[in-house]
Write a structure and sequence with these properties.
The chain is α/β, with parallel strands linked by helices and 313 residues long. 36% of the residues lie in helices and 25% in strands. The protein contains ten helices and 17 strands. The strands form four sheets. Strands 3-9-2-1-12-16-17-15 form an eight-stranded mixed sheet, sandwiched between helices. The chain has a four-stranded mixed sheet with strand order 8-4-10-11. The mean pLDDT is 92. It catalyses: hydrogencarbonate + NH4(+) + ATP = carbamoyl phosphate + ADP + H2O + H(+). It holds the Pfam family AA_kinase. InterPro entries: AceGlu_kinase-like_sf (IPR036393), Asp/Glu/Uridylate_kinase (IPR001048), Carb_kinase (IPR003964).
Amino acid sequence: MNNKIVIALGGNAIQTDDGSAEAQRNAIRETMQTLKPLFKTDTDIVISHGNGPQIGNMLIQQSVADSEQTPAMPLDVCGSMTQGMIGFWLETEINRILTEIKSERRAGTIITRVEVDPEDPRMSTPTKPIGPFYDKAEVEALQKANPDSVYKEDSGRGYRKVVPSPLPVSILEHKLISDLVEDKNIIIACGGGGIPVVKQHNTYEGVEAVIDKDFASEKLAQLIDADTLMILTNVENVYVHFNEPDQQKLTDVDVATLKDYIDQGTFKEGSMLPKIEAAIDFLESGNGQRVIITNLTNAYEALEGKVGTQIKR
């Protein structure tokens, strides 16, 4: 069993067709029960998570309620709100399990800021759609009010605002997270990829951007000297030529082989490619020993090396 692991939960661990608090809490309860065997070990654990559906709903709520009495909050604030909300649900269920198994460990959430480089080329090329859909007339009115905003047509469903998705430079709370984890606390951090911030004078200020959750999780795993990064998604294994006649399941694979597949254009942008790139970055960073990509159901068996895609140097 590993000494220290960062587990990156995909949106399917929380997402449900029913956006109510009760439905999402029930989904999280089932997810944490799946991870229960891991909580019985001595492994140091950090859990990160996505927030796509939650922040999307929150941005819709903000736009509907926007008025002088209830002004809409900016994207960085909405990100922190979803971190707190999902973190609260996660730590509630984890602490419930820890009590059931008579463990003295406890879980807690760290609202996490992730430093990005304002000169990152990705900052000038918005690509990440967020929030509600608009028709053309609504977009023209929105852009008149805020000329710097960018909107793009999304799959024939209308227009959505798009924001940059820069790469993480550092996790500002990584030392705090490391200390808490080494005291055997289970820590929830980097929710939704963290809150993107840039350094300004003697502090950091939030920016309108979204950080990929897997890249943020990988950066955190580097900074806290984790042995293993586990990326939980909706498939049991990584595949090459996915859904094609020559589809091939990857079980044990090394970095050099994955780089060859990337050069061949095997993995799709916005799907498996970021996870593979995060895996490579982690293993080439120094202390990283293993990356596991699998689904939630197989998480514990994958940690034991029995299933899933196991990536090593």
